[in-house]
Amino acid sequence: HYLAKRAEVFDPEKASHIVKGSPSIGSDTVYFSIVDDYGNACSFIAAVPKDCGFSLQCRGSGFVLQEGHPNCVAPSKRPYHTIIPSLATKHDELWVCFGVMGGDMQPQGHVQVILNLLEFGFNPQMALDAPRIRLAPGDDEADGQSYYVCVEEAMDENVVNKLGELGHRVKVITGWERSMFGRGQVVQLIKDKKGGRLWAAGSDCRGDGCALGW
Question: Using CB atoms within 10 A of its CB, is residue 37 exposed (0-12), middle (13-18) or buried (19+)?
């Protein structure tokens, strides 16, 4: 129901008007993905932002007081936050244990990684290494837009040009600045034709993680 409502406001022919929020860019998060032989898994993400002295849940203050805002504080309502470790199942068993760090890039990164695995058939490392896009806050609103569509330098030039034609302000991001596209880890169940099982893993090239098996 929620996805259907969101789809109604999407226009594939032109850029949408997006109300500016208050995302921040930082490096205060860690993520790891662990799976054993039996399929028991832990998808773990935690962040300790500056000035916060606790590590259990640091996003309880992620609300606004502006009445009518989608994230306005209210009873029986959870504040928006990006502590979103993920597990995906297929045929009633674990299929992939994954997560992407990066503040407001997390949900955007999750969608792109899972699409790479599910729709394009990439292996875990390919799914993480593929160029990403990010909807990022603009530095001014002089021209009436409050965001940029940032794309990694490896993105197909035709895709970049098409985004511009649709009315988006596009920035091509290069070098170390590519860290803004998040850092992820993936462990995926692979089955052969005889029913054999193995776990394939990947670690994001944008960070300092690694994939290990033992």
Answer: exposed
DSSP annotation of 16 reads P
Which strand (E) or helix (H) includes residue 44?
strand 41-47
Q: Residues 161-177, buried b or exposed e (16+ Cβ, 10 A)?
A: eebeeeebebeebeeee
* CA pair distance 211, 37, nearest whole angstrom: 16
Q: How far apart are CA 182 and CA 197, in angstroms?
A: 29
Q: What is the pTM of this model?
A: 0.78
- Per-residue CA distances from 93 to 89, 96, 97, 107 (Å): 5, 9, 11, 23
**Measured distance CA(24)–CA(213) in Å, rounded:** 34
Going edge to edge, which strands form the sheet with 86-90? 86-90, 93-101, 183-191, 197-203
- Two structure tokens written together for 163: 């985004």
C-alpha distances out from residue 134 to 74, 137, 182, Å = 29, 10, 9
Return left, alpha or beta for 108; rule: phi > 0 is left, psi -120 to 50 is alpha, else beta: alpha
Pairing of strands 183-191, 197-203: antiparallel
User: Residue 28: what are its φ and ψ, rounded to 5°?
Assistant: -120, 20
Q: Are 41 and 34 in contact (CB under 8 A)?
A: yes
Tell me the average confidence (pLDDT) per consecutive run of 10 residues in the chain, 214 residues long.
80 74 61 91 83 61 84 84 88 94 89 96 96 84 70 94 92 90 94 87 91 88
